[in-house]
Amino acid sequence: MIGFDEVQVGDELPVLHTKMISRTTLALFAGASGDHNPMHIDIDFAKKAGMNDVFAHGMLSVAYLGRLLTGWVAQNAIKKIDVRFTSITQLFAEITCSAIVKEKFERDGSKLVLLLIDAKDQNGDIKISGSAEIALN
Amino acid sequence: MLNTSDIGKVFPSVTAAVEIGRLRFFAKAIGENNPIYTDEAAAKDAGYESLPLPPSFFFSLKMDVPNPFENYEKVGASLAKILHANQAFVYHQSVIAGDSLTFDSHIADIYHKKAGALEFLVEKTKVSNQRGQHVADMTTTLVVRN
User: Fold this and answer.
1) In CATH, what number does B4-17+53-145 get?
2) How many helices (H) and strands (E) would you count in chain B?
3) Residue ranges per domain, chain B?
């Protein structure tokens, strides 16, 4: 795994590109994630609630951000993830996850890296943005 | 409408098993190809006793009850009007398949914006394992669009 000294402020993590979000993606994610909110899987319910169609679970893109991080470091190095959902992720979106090293610091004897993370769609619109703390040796 | 008198309200605790099949299904659903999330032997090679719980999956297990949105609906946040605004996880200890997690949640805050057109509910959850160890904390902020 990458070491604390190998990481510099301004470094970017390898970008994670994900597949287009289809209705199948949402059906599988609903079942696997346990979020059965019909807004994500039932077009009739979504229309009744004033939407044009179903839209993606915000937590799907958070899971993609999780993949970005666990693709970079071991899972147990992740100490914190804090994200804001900035806009709805539409059906057929293609999400790209990226992260940049914002800060390196020590706290309670641990060496930590603060990442700024975000998930964007194919138009470059930010869907989720936030931060993550990673402990490195 | 939400009511600020519900700040501090404690929700019934939820206990959920971390099932290996469910973790594999989740990996498939999110396109996770790293074998440590699907193959126990690969997880063991990586130093885990079984498949590790992916970072965001705590949120899923907390919903492992017959009606996961009931708590919100009871305080006036109906399903058709809520959106997820913020989500935070703080991790203290690893969780693996075979563990059992207990989620203790309460309403930490309720506030309004735009003259009540947007209402926010902040829920904080402490996650403990079957040995009583504090493994994670979650903060969920929902927005109700009135």
Assistant:
1) 3.10.129.10
2) 4, 5
3) 4-17+53-145
